[in-house]
Amino acid sequence: MGEQTTPGLDLAIGHLRSGRPAETAAICRARLAADPADFEAWHLLGVARTMLGETRPAIEALTRAVELRPDHAEANRNLGALLAQGKRFGEAIPHLEVAHQAAPDSREAIIYLARALRESGQPERSAGFLEPYLASHPQDAEAWYQLALALAGIHRPAEAIGAAQRALAIKPDHVEAERALAGIHFNERDYAAAIAAWRRVAALRPRDPESHRGLAKTLAVDGHMEEADAALGRVLSLAPDWGTEIRRATLLRPLMRSLADIDETRRRYGDRLAALAQRHPQLRDPNVEVADCVAFYLAYHGRDDLPLQRQLAALYLDACPALGSEAPHLRDWRPRSRPRIGVVSTNLNAHTVGFVTLGLLQQFDRSRFELVLLRTAPPSPSATQAKFSACADQDITLPSNLAEARARIAAAQCDLLYYPDIGMAPLTYFLLFARLAPVQVVGWGHPDTTGIPNADYWMSSAVWEPAEADDHYTERLVRLAAPPIHYEPRVWNPPARSRAELGLPETGRLYLCPMSLFKIHPGYDPLLRRILQEDPEGWLLFASGHSVNWDEVLKQRVAAGDERLARRILFLPRYEIADFTALGPVVDCQLDPIYFGGGRTSLDIFHTGAPIVTWPGPFMRSRITSGFYRRMGVTELVARGHEDYVALALRTAKDDDFREAMRRRIRERAGALYKTVGAVREVEDFFAAAIAAAGNGQPSITWNPPAATPP
């Protein structure tokens, strides 16, 4: 114990050292019965109960000891360590700081303090304790591991990787350092390195299902689906569970290899769901057990997703009937005179969904409606976050637990819930299954039907939807006259940039397709190949994908084995918004992918006059840019078919007069897309009508937009 003790405590210490903590505890309790202020007895009792695994009584005993001797280093260290082990990091920190101040070289105090600081959101302070310690103790593998985590938390990934590698050089079987290395590589999108690290974790812990689960996730993100399937099979052989069964059944490749691959993938997806349904899986909390939006990539196949989405939703409802619960207040609900609108999203921040939703909410008539933000992710300080908060009457962060989040939304007692981005985050997806408001509306943030019975309306626009679009949704389709947005370009006047400044080829014609690579459908490949073949001086520019593997897969798919074409396919880094808008005047033609085109990307660059060639396909997600052209009254760059698409792209790039005429017309007409207050008023009118209909007992309404398109 480090101090002179009474003979009775000497005997207690002897028992402790001999591995008999129960005898130690008995002696301490007897002494404390006689003297409740005996610091040594409280301290030793806490240590003994820690050894016995009696965590709560141990914390109580050590707390009493520290109350008697607040500056005692060892008692504070023991209490802080025990609190940290129980993940009570905020409580642990003051005690570990006392221990560290009294004994700056105490390894245990530094390790626990560094962890507690990092876990409580102070990674910079954590690194500040570890770095000087490691300067004098460079062979401490655990300290290097803790430093790796702290450095990753303050966005110093290269140094974090180096620290994890130092830990592994000292202790090659340090499995947690290997996991940390895999996680850091994953976050940096170096999936090849992450996969290698996860393989080493699995070799170190072959019987640990989480090792194979981490490997499977990384393999799937990088597109190695057969290996991901095998890794999930190993998880199931070690620890069978329904959530993993569902994830395995619904694996989807991010970049499809061919049209045949799409057909086979969708057939397998449906067959596996049907087979699972026959086994009647049971889920308590699918947000935890499945923890994924397993249908996300379906939208990029260019097919009708309604049957598969409906099949998936039915499986979830059968597996977890509580998903379809109803909020108690709805039994005697009546519409308010000032309806309360709740907006449920993970992305009310600087995200594509946030950017296209913010203006709509800012322009809502607050005298007519009450707005409640229901975030599934806590806001972080930023100008965008502040703008969201300013436009709402209430700004609520939901718990991460599904049942608690449902209860919190129900407690808000909204008249209408708007879900702008179903399919992008598992929690919002599973929340929509419940009836938490009389009216529940889905938006276009992820443009695909949900298949969920309690989703009432899918809010879209007449300029986006084909005539037969009602058949594409399980929800009632609402065709507003104008797109339901109020958008302002984030950079109105982009700075002039040369090709060299933007890292582009200085000669030749530039065809830019700046979308996420999973939007590039295999059916689009022949069109892109034709453009390169018919313009030997042309360069095809993509935005670099999630990984080197994605870039290479797409390049080889488009080039189809022609290395001369492959050399003219380039992948650009992700630009900041100012540099992205500066591309508009520099590239010769921008290409909107067929089957799934641009939305916010087009809005961010149309005002520069960028000529975007597009083709309105069979589903709304391929018709957004053409809908913007309809709003502008510009039709020359809207292709009538695939052949026409190629011809328009080549003409735009090669014919300087045509291209410049298009730039002028687009610049002149682009104002029709921005700050569209009339569109906001129509959304308000639809919301009010839907609420009134629900109040009158109508299950849904058919929205007939005004004949005149509002500005």
TrEMBL record:
TPR repeats lie at residues 39-72, 141-174. It comes from the Bacteria. The keyword Cell cycle does not apply. PROSITE patterns: TPR (PS50005). Coiled coil: none annotated. SMART domains: TPR. Residues 498-669 form the O-GlcNAc transferase C-terminal domain. It is an enzyme of class 2 (transferase). It holds the Pfam family TPR_19. InterPro entries: OGT/SEC/SPY_C, TPR-like_helical_dom_sf, TPR_rpt. GO terms for molecular function: protein O-acetylglucosaminyltransferase activity. The keyword Coiled coil does not apply. Its EC number is 2.4.1.255. SUPFAM superfamilies: TPR-like (SSF48452), UDP-Glycosyltransferase/glycogen phosphorylase (SSF53756). Keywords: Glycosyltransferase, Repeat, TPR repeat, Transferase. Pathway: Protein modification; protein glycosylation. Belongs to the glycosyltransferase 41 family. O-GlcNAc transferase subfamily. This is protein O-GlcNAc transferase.
